[in-house]
Design brief:
By secondary structure, the chain is α+β, with helices and mostly antiparallel strands. Among the domains are: 278 residues, Catalase HpII,  Chain A, domain 1 (Beta Barrel), CATH 2.40.180.10; 57 residues, no CATH class. Helices cover 27% and strands 17% of the residues. It contains twelve helices and twelve strands. Strands 2, 3, 4, 5, 6, 7, 8, 9, 10 and 11 form a ten-stranded antiparallel sheet that branches. Strands 1-12 form a two-stranded antiparallel sheet. Helix 2 packs antiparallel against helix 3 and helix 11 runs antiparallel to helix 12. It is globular. The two termini are 41 Å apart. The mean pLDDT is 93. This is Catalase. Its cofactor is heme. Belongs to the catalase family.
Length: 486
C-alpha cells in the first residue's frame, strides 16, 4: 500500500491537486473540459443511485403552457419568445432535493423548479430551484455536498454533524443556509412559491448582441409557507401533501400560474459590478437591474401516467435553443455535463426519444443504436456527416455567440470571497418574528451536531454576517461567541 494513504486520488489512483476549485480559464472561467478530476468525480457521482435520481428524487409535475406577454426580441432571438401572445407547451416538475423517492414533501429543503419548453426550435430546459442562490459555487464540490445530505454509510441515518461540518467549512453556503432556515424553507404548497433559474445565462439577439440574464418565476397565488410544527405533523400524516395539493388543484380547475421576469445586465457591467454575477451564491440587486416581465406559465393538465411523464422526464441546463446561451458560472458549467450524463445512466442513452422528452419540432441527427432504442433508429438514411447524400447539416447562424475569455488555466476560486454581506442583508431585512423563527430553526437543526468545534465555526459565519445573528444562535445553543471571530 502507498505511504501516501492520506492523499485524495481519482478513481484510477492519481493524486488530486485541488478538490475545492475546478480548472478554469482565469478566475471567472469558463470551466475546462481537460479537468479530468472534475469529470471523473461528477461522472462517478451521477451513477451512485440506481435507478432513482441522485438528487430531486421525490417530485411531481404537470403539463401546461407559457404565453409571452412582453416583447423582448431586442435581447434574444429565441423563437418561443418572439411575439406577444405566442404560446408554447411546457412540462414542469417540482421536487425536494435530498430525500429519497418515498420521502416526505414537507421537509425543510430547497424545491426543484424545472420547466421544459417544447419550442419550434427544439426543447429548452430552465432548470432551477425555489431559491435564487445555492449552497456552493463550484461544481467540483457538488458530490461532497450532496453526500452530507444523504444517509451516513454506517448508521444509514441522516447526519447533522456531516451537514454542518461541510457548511461551516464552506462559508459560501451561508446565504442559502439563511434562506433555507427561514420561513421560506418550507413552502405551504408547490403553488405558493417562487422559482428561479438561479444561474446567470446569456441571451443573444438576431444581430448577435448579447446580454446577461437572470430568470425569476413569481407565483401568481402569492407566497405562503408552512409552520414548522405543522410541516412535521403533515410529514407523518400525509407525506405526499404537496403532490396531492398540486394534483387536486389542477383536477378541480384551479390552475396555478407563475409570471416570468428577467433581470438584464449589459455584458460590460459584469466586470465592474460589486458582486460577481456568475457566482450562484450571490444575487444581483433588483434595484440595480429591475425585473422585466416576459410572460406567464399556466399548469392545466395532470399527467396520465406518473412513471412515463414525471419519473422519466429528464432535464438539463444544457438543453438550449438558439438565442439562449450559458455564462462562465462554474456551478452551471459543471451542471451542463452532469445533468445529461446522469440521465443517460438513469434512463439510458436514448432518453431524449421518450415521449415526455421528445421535442415536438422533431430531431435530425446521426445518433444511432444504444440500449432501449425503440424508434426507427434512423432507418436506412445516411448515418454520418459530412456526407454527399443530402443528410442534415450544420447551420452556421446557430453557432453559440462568441465571448471573451482570458487568464491562466488553473484551479482557482472566484476573486470575490465576500460570503457575508448578502446573508447579513437578508437577516436585517427580516422582522423580529422572522428572525426569531430563523434562529429557532437553526438552533434546533444544530443541536444534534456532535462536535462543538463545528458549531463554533458556524457561529463565526453567522456573526460575520451580522453580530446579532451570531450572538442569538450562540445563545440558543448555550455557547459563547467565539473570541477569534475574524
Amino acid at each position: 500500500m502507498s505511504e501516501n494513504k492520506n492523499k485524495l486520488t481519482t478513481s484510477w489512483g492519481a493524486p488530486v491537486g485541488d478538490n475545492q476549485n475546478s480548472m478554469t480559464a482565469g478566475s471567472s472561467g469558463p470551466t475546462l473540459i481537460q479537468d479530468f478530476a472534475l469529470l471523473d468525480k461528477l461522472a462517478h457521482f451521477d451513477r451512485e443511485r440506481v435507478p432513482e435520481r441522485v438528487v430531486h428524487a421525490k417530485g411531481t409535475g404537470a403539463h401546461g403552457y407559457f404565453e409571452v406577454t412582453h416583447d423582448l426580441s431586442q435581447y434574444t432571438k429565441a423563437d418561443f419568445l418572439s411575439q406577444i401572445g405566442k404560446r408554447t407547451s411546457v412540462f414542469t416538475r417540482f421536487s425536494t432535493v435530498a430525500g429519497e423517492l418515498g420521502s416526505a414533501d414537507t421537509v425543510r429543503d430547497p424545491r426543484g423548479f424545472a420547466v421544459k419548453f417544447y419550442t419550434n426550435e427544439g426543447n429548452y430546459d430552465l432548470v432551477g430551484n425555489n431559491t435564487p442562490v445555492f449552497f456552493i459555487r463550484d461544481a467540483i464540490k457538488f458530490p461532497d455536498f450532496i453526500h452530507t445530505q444523504k444517509r451516513d454509510p454506517r448508521t444509514h441515518l441522516k447526519n447533522p454533524t456531516a451537514v454542518w461540518d461541510f457548511w461551516s467549512l464552506s462559508p459560501e453556503s451561508l446565504h442559502q443556509v439563511t434562506i433555507l432556515a427561514s420561513d421560506r424553507g418550507i413552502p405551504a404548497t408547490l403553488r405558493h412559491m417562487h422559482g428561479y433559474g438561479s444561474h446567470t445565462f446569456r441571451w443573444v439577439n438576431a444581430e448577435g448582441k448579447s446580454v446577461w440574464v437572470k430568470y425569476h418565476w413569481r407565483t401568481d397565488q402569492g407566497i405562503k409557507n408552512l409552520d414548522v410544527d405543522l410541516a412535521e405533523k403533515l410529514a407523518g400524516e400525509n407525506p405526499d401533501y404537496h403532490t396531492q395539493d398540486l394534483f387536486n388543484a389542477i383536477e378541480n380547475g384551479d390552475y396555478p400560474s407563475w409570471t416570468l421576469y428577467v433581470q438584464i445586465m449589459p455584458l460590460e457591467d459584469a466586470k465592474a459590478y460589486r458582486f460577481n454575477p456568475f457566482d450562484v451564491t450571490k444575487v444581483i440587486s433588483q434595484k440595480d437591474y429591475p425585473l422585466i416581465e416576459v410572460g406567464r406559465m399556466v399548469l392545466n393538465k395532470n399527467p396520465e401516467n406518473y412513471f412515463a411523464e414525471v419519473e422519466q422526464a429528464a432535464f438539463s441546463p444544457a438543453t438550449l435553443v438558439p438565442g439562449i446561451d450559458v455564462s462562465p458560472d462554474k456551478m452551471l458549467q459543471g451542471r451542463l455535463f452532469s445533468y445529461a450524463d446522469t440521465q443517460r445512466h438513469r434512463i439510458g442513452p436514448n432518453y431524449q426519444t421518450l415521449p415526455i422528452n421528445r421535442p415536438l419540432s422533431g430531431v435530425n441527427n446521426y445518433y444511432r443504436d444504444g440500449n432501449m432504442r425503440f424508434d426507427g433508429n434512423g432507418g436506412r438514411s445516411v448515418y454520418y456527416e459530412p456526407n454527399s447524400f443530402g443528410g442534415p447539416a450544420e447551420s452556421s447562424e446557430n453557432k453559440q455567440a462568441e465571448f471573451e475569455v482570458n487568464g491562466m488555466a488553473a484551479n482557482v476560486p472566484y476573486d470575490d470571497d465576500d460570503f457575508y454581506t448578502q446573508a447579513g442583508d437578508l437577516y436585517r431585512l427580516m422582522n423580529e418574528d422572522e428572525r426569531t423563527r430563523l434562529v429557532r430553526n437553526l438552533v434546533n437543526w444544530m443541536k444534534p451536531v456532535e462536535v462543538e468545534e463545528i458549531k463554533e465555526r458556524q457561529i463565526r459565519h453567522f456573526y460575520r454576517a451580522d453580530p446579532e445573528y451570531g450572538k442569538r444562535v450562540a445563545e440558543g445553543l448555550g455557547l459563547p461567541v467565539p473570541n477569534n471571530i475574524l
